[in-house]
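Tutorial, part two.
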Amino acid sequence: MSERNELRDKKIPMNNGRSIPALGFGTLIPDLGDTLRATRTALEAGFRQFDSSERYRNEEAVGEAIQEVLREGKVRRDDLFIATKLWNNNHRPERVKPAFEASLKRLRLDYVDLYLMHTPFAFRPGDDQDPTDEHGKTIYDTGVTLAGTWGAMERLVDEGKCRAIGLSDVGLEHVEEINRSARIRPAVVQVEAHPYLPQWELLQACNEAGIVFLAFAVLGHSFEPKLLEDEVIKKVATAVGGTTAQVCIAWALQRGTAILTTSTNAEHIRASLDVSPLPESAMEAIKGITTRYRFNKVVETGVPGFIPRKADRKGAGG
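Running the prediction step on this input gives:
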């Protein structure tokens, strides 16, 4: 997989007339120093799509890495596709714009290319990102609707500092609900997807609606079952002369999705861009994998699955 080809620079058209680079770098990295270094490495390696969130608590580090590379003239802002997300405690319509502007300030950007609703679950409004009661149970906000939050996000597009809006950590029912009522339809739906969770039905629905399907956790996770140690994936990797990570990335890109991959290892970051198309036999073999597993349960409750809660910054991301 040493030769560069169309997968590295692939772009997918969005329904707002713009395009999103198919290969994206996720910035869910708990340590701020690691975030800055990894984001800068990804920029210099050739990544042009970057995903962030107010909930990751590291937008400042992401913004600093971007500004460093921009100042050095190594990339132009117009060449970058930057996304961030609205967290659950800011779903009330009157809280959406202040949350968005705070993210812009932390990222040190005049606009973002994509603003996502991080999950469809609304938490109690306030400064606490993970409000819980005396029993440790999440406190939800019943005074706001999905459509109400979406309407406030639509107004951000009207004001010009947000090029597109979308949904994250949702099921098919949420996508259909917004599509029925939205004035501005979602440009992107970001969800966990990999050979153990291919989400074919949601992918088909997105394709039919003209929505870009953006997959995270494309390499699985460090938890069991370990996707990168799957015998089918290993067999394909040996056959094509690549790593199991490169195989999973190529599979995702070839089936038409955009993807996010995350690493603090410079070698792994660069290797993620060094992907080549898989033969059809390999695509069919991976499609035939029967293991089914969801690593991140955030889609069920809105509670962070990979990212640390409260002040704990030692957990894994999500």
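Residues 97 and 155 are 9 Å apart (CA to CA). In part three we will examine how such features are distributed along the chain.
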